[in-house]
Amino acid sequence: MSAERGAKRAKLKSGGKRFSMFTVVGISNFVVDFGVLNLFLWLAPTREPSLLALYNGVALLLANVNSYAWNALWTFRGRAERGPRQKVLFLLQALFGVAVGSCLFWLLVRGILTYTGSPAYVAGNIAKIASAAVASTISFFLMRYLVFSRKRRFGRAVRTRL
Questions:
Q1: How far is it, in rounded angstroms, from Cα 101 to Cα 103?
Q2: What is the pTM of this model?
């Protein structure tokens, strides 16, 4: 019983460390994401929700490239295969995250611009914070349990380790 409890504790500690690493990568993604969005808002200001959503989509795509690089090389290094299966799964989770984030962003930015007198850059950043929080949470679970999982959900089985 004690060995089992120790194994569970070690697994929990490992998961906490991995989530902390994912958070650091998430901060770098946040910098890329917000930086690109705000660069667009500065270079080509607009109050058009569809154009703002396009800016957001480009920012999300660049943040996802950053995310794959850092998560494959660092956060999930022991689980990264760098093969076509994992790249396709990452692409699918990224597209899902971009879709969720962009839809939520559009809904929020449209509402803020319609019902308040907020400038576009304020509306864009408020919508970005909320949509990024939701999309990042979804992304962590998809990467942890699907893309970088040791238990194959698609393809041959892989030996499970703690």
A1: 6
A2: 0.72
